[in-house]
Amino acid sequence: MPIKTKKHPDFPNYLFYSDGRIQNIQLYFHHTLARKKVINPRYNKFLKFRKHPQWDLYMVNPIDKDGIQRTVFPHKMTASLFVRNPKKKNHVWFRDDDKNNIRWTNLFWVTQGDLNHIQERLGTRDMAKQAAVMRKSRRTVGRGNKSNKNK
Question: The whole model's pTM is what?
Answer without folding.
Answer: 0.71
